[in-house]
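[Automated response] Your request has been received and processed.

Submitted sequence:
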Amino acid sequence: MTNQTIRVLLVDDHAVVRAGYKRYLELDPQIEVVGEAVSGEQAYTLLASIQVDLIVMDLSMPGQGGIESMRHILQRYPAQRVLVFTMHENAALAMQSLRSGASGYLTKSMSPELIVDAIHQVMQGGRPLSQELAAAVAQAEQESAPHLQFAPREFEIFRLLANGHSVDDIGQRLHIGLKTVANYQSIIRQKLGVANAIELYQYAREHDLA
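Generated structure:
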C-alpha cells in the first residue's frame, strides 16, 4: 500500500467529530475519506456502492451500535478492515471488539497523529491498540471474570440491558426475536450470578460497563 491511496469510511453519529477527523486524516496525502455514515447500518448500506479499504468506526451510535454493526459488516464482507475509534477506555470492550474482528482499537483521547499512524499499521497487517489499554487488555485476557467470557452477541446484549434497554427495544435494535433476547437475558444473568435487572446493572457499574 506504499504508493496507493487508502480509502476510509468514517462512521460516527457526531457530524463535528467526522468533519474534524476528515480534515486531519486528509492532511496525509495517502488517505482519502470516501464516505461518512452516522450508524453501522448506514455504513453497511454504503459498502454496496463505494470501495473502502478501511472503516474507522465508533462504538456508541444509534441502532445496533458498533460491535454488532461490525459483526454484521464482517459477515457480509469478511476481508473488510475495521478500526474501532471510541471514547471507551475499557479493556473488556477492547477485547470484545478484537474478538469480533476489529483490526485495532483506538481511543479518542489519543493524539491525532497516532490515529494516522494506526491507519497505516492496519493497512500493513498490524493490529494497533491504544497504549493506555494494552496492559489492561493483556491482564484481562488472563482473568476469568464472567463478562470477559461472554460471546460477542452475549456481551452486546449485556451492555444494552445494563444501560436500561428493554427486551423489546433490544430485539428491534438487533433485529432478533423477543424470545431470543429473553433467552439471552436468562443466560447472561446465570453466567453473572445475578438475579434481576438491578443486580445486573450493579455488576456492569462495578466493571465500568454502564
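Summary generated for your ticket: The longest strand covers residues 31-37. The chain has two domains: 6-140, 146-206.
If you did not submit this request, please reply to this message.
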